[in-house]
Amino acid sequence: MDKDNKVIESDLAVLWRRRNEETTNGEGFCPSAALPLSFCNFCGNCRRVVPLHEPFDKSTSSRSFSSIFDNSKYGILQLNNGLARTPQMGWNSWNFFACNINETVIKETADALVSTGLADLGYAYVNIDDCWSSLERDSKGQLVPDPKTFPSGIKALADYVHAKGLKLGIYSDAGIFTCQVRPGSIYHERDDAELFASWGVDYLKYDNCYNLASNQKNGYSSSYPPMRNALNATGRTIFYSLCEWGVDDPALWAGKVGNSWRTTDDINDSWASMTTIADLNDKWAAYAGPGGWNDPDMLEVGNGGMTLEEYSAHFSIWALMKAPLLVGCDVRNITAETFEIIGNKEVIDINQDSLGIQGRKVHVSGKDGCRQVWAGPLSGHRLVVALWNRCSKAATITVGWEVLGLESSMSVSIRDLWKHEDLSGDAVASFGSLVASHDCGMYIFTPVSASRSAV
Ligand code: GLA
């Protein structure tokens, strides 16, 4: 039996073991236990698990392929509310507007997502971050939208956004207050989830400020499951985005709690922040998959603090890492250069690829490892390969097939996703390209023998 099949088999074994544990530990009875891919989730709900990753074609890959692109941790813990089959795409108010938000900004942003064509490219969620609510709950203990900035209320805004074919996201916090000291949702999970559902909210970002220390023990934050249960209980399908900043290594436990989990502290609009966060998120690659994604924070593309090369690298690597693609600039005033980056459909397609395996850093060379190769498997027996030059000068970066887990004799056809062209002639054994400082070349590699038996 080949190695790929062993990986799949061991995933299945884990799923079956967990299913059996959960049907016998009193958390819930699984009536569909006889179905081969049925699984009772943490709440005792029985649904189909998401499909396991398809194995890469063994005729094109070497023995080391599965260890290079290990995804064996994925699928062990799955929240299965049917969402996040691919990473979420949309916009969030925080990176550009911070607390300077109001209903007009949100509506105009929804309009702009549609008029620019970004909505058609998949940017569907319009997410309101912190500062939408009043400083206090009302006399009944309910959250209230700030009457000055959101006078029409959130339901009206959700109706507006839905009428455009988009979805509305909102923000709350697993502690006493949000980070900007609005009321948090701890001990109000049921009420707040019901309120969000009644407004027609489709997405909740759940932050970690003013959290109770007693809830953060043993490498696990127990503040997050109550909101998951409350959202489930509303009967509305609501994307649950954990913003726990990676404090308690959420990749290890958040798969059964939410649809994505922040793995790091906040990004800021700088090369140093973006590169640091990319490296931190890389560590958890084996834990991501359809249903639950590592979240290295929202995009800064278009906010002015990085060069176009740096923004293009930021977008390339976020797409390759299967990160949520949440635009963080003012899309009402988007420039052509920014649109060319976040509107690159070929790069978006990498992020949204159905195989759902997080790409990762596979090779470094040069001073401080600044010549980098990042790569990951794609559906159709293809690979995405990024040549990322983090050096201060232009450099030629070369990738050998052994780094990618391909047989060295394999012929590979190559498409350049930023130039939008197929390279002439197939490559064998290695491929190199001159990359400008801080820029990132991004390519799809299609092993020629695999393309003949295309999926
Ligand atoms: C935290 C989060 C950010 C943002 C702010 C809002 O810092 O990590 O993404 O939501 O709070 O206050």
Q: What ligands are attached or bound here?
A: alpha-D-galactopyranose
Structural class: alpha/beta
Describe the oligomeric state of these chains in a short phrase. Answer: single chain
Number of DSSP helical runs: 13
Residue stretches low in confidence (pLDDT < 50, at least 5 long) are 1-53, 451-455
Task: Summarize the biggest pleated sheet.
Answer: 8 strands, parallel
Rough outline: globular
The CATH architecture of the largest domain can be given as Alpha-Beta Barrel
Could you tell me the mean pLDDT? 87
Enzyme class: hydrolase
InterPro entries: Aldolase_TIM (IPR013785), GH (IPR017853), Glyco_hydro_27 (IPR002241), Glyco_hydro_27/36_CS (IPR000111), Glyco_hydro_b (IPR013780), Melibiase_C (IPR041233)
Keywords: Disulfide bond, Glycosidase, Hydrolase, Signal
Pfam family, one: Melibiase_2
Topology:
Blueprint: H1 3-24, E1 38-40, E2 46-48, H2 65-68, E3 89-92, H3 94-97, H4 103-116, E4 125-127, H5 153-163, E5 167-173, H6 189-199, E6 203-207, E7 216-217, E8 220-221, H7 225-234, E9 239-242, E10 260-262, H8 271-282, E11 293-295, H9 308-320, E12 325-327, H10 336-342, H11 345-351, E13 360-365, E14 371-378, E15 382-389, E16 395-400, H12 401-404, E17 411-416, E18 421-422, E19 427-428, E20 430-435, E21 440-447, H13 448-452
Parallel strand pairs: 3-4, 3-12, 4-5, 5-6, 6-9, 9-10, 10-11
Antiparallel strand pairs: 1-2, 7-8, 13-14, 14-15, 15-21, 16-20, 17-18, 17-19, 17-21
Helix pairs in contact: 4-5, 6-7, 8-9, 9-10, 9-11
Bound molecules: alpha-D-galactopyranose.
